[in-house]
């Protein structure tokens, strides 16, 4: 599946394709975007179980940071801690004996403003303005390069992320097969509700 992140001055957008193995699968039970802390979320591409392991560890790290320092953990520090776990495979009872088969997009807001990071199975992480990972990432990356603008509003970033996702997805985009979240300074991490999501999809479809 493909995941897309777009950073704007107002916040960060995460949009992910949800590939359902069967029409009988309840779409709500497939989670591809997760909250790490109130100011931070992650989108995944790869093995969901591995993503859960990394995200659970990041959640613990973020909560320990708040408990110890009485302030939210910086986005870069969370990216670093996830990468440290990713490269430490085989070194403990609670991590697999093989590399983690998942890439993550981390979206967050801290004192340095809205930020987007990409972590991969090699244990490296990098900071991006817009990033696509997963099966359709090549086509999506090209589209993002052409259309991304650093002065975009959050709504424009939201439209761009879904528009690019629509281009690379094999199925028609609807509220059951995509998941979208935003992270802003005012509202923190927020999953887009189906009504709002349908409205944005409608706008994109109308624009052709």
Order of helices and strands: EEEEHHEEEEHHEEH
Distance between the termini: 23 Å
* Order of strands in the sheet with most strands: 8-1-2-9-10
Number of strands: 10
Which structural class do you get from the secondary structure elements?
alpha+beta
Proportion of residues in β-strands: 25-35%
The helix fraction, in percent, is 25-40%
Largest sheet: 5 strands, antiparallel
> How large, in whole angstroms, is the Cα Rg?
16 Å
The average pLDDT score comes to: 94
**Which stretches are poorly predicted, pLDDT < 50 over at least 5 residues?**
none
**Helix count?**
5
Q: Based on CA inertia axes, which overall geometry fits?
A: globular
Could you explain how this protein is built, in words?
By secondary structure, the chain is of the alpha+beta class. It is 36% helix and 29% strand. The protein contains five helices and ten strands. The protein has a five-stranded antiparallel β-sheet with strand order 8-1-2-9-10. The protein has a five-stranded antiparallel β-sheet with strand order 3-4-5-6-7. Strand 6 (113-119) and strand 7 (125-128) form a beta hairpin. It is globular, with a radius of gyration of 16 Å. The model has no long low-confidence stretch (mean pLDDT 94).
């Amino acid at each position: 599946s493909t995941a897309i992140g777009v950073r704007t001055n107002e916040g960060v957008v995460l949009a992910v394709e949800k590939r359902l193995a069967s029409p009988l699968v309840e779409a709500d039970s497939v989670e591809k975007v997760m909250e790490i802390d109130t100011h931070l979320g992650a989108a995944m591409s790869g093995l969901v179980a591995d993503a859960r392991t990394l995200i659970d560890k990041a959640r613990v790290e973020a909560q320990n940071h708040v408990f110890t320092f009485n302030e939210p953990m910086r986005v870069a520090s969370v990216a670093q801690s996830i990468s440290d776990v990713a490269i430490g495979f085989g070194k403990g009872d609670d991590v697999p004996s093989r590399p983690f088969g998942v890439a993550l997009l981390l979206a967050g807001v801290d004192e340095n403003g809205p930020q987007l990071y990409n972590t991969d199975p090699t244990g490296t992480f990098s900071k991006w303005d817009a990033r696509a990972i997963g099966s359709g990432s090549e086509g999506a990356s090209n589209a993002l390069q052409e259309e991304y603008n650093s002065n975009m509003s959050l709504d424009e970033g939201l439209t761009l992320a879904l528009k690019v996702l629509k281009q690379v997805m094999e199925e028609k985009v609807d509220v059951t097969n995509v998941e979208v979240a935003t992270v802003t300074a005012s509202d923190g991490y927020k999953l887009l509700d189906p009504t709002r999501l349908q409205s944005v999809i409608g706008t994109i479809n109308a624009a052709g």
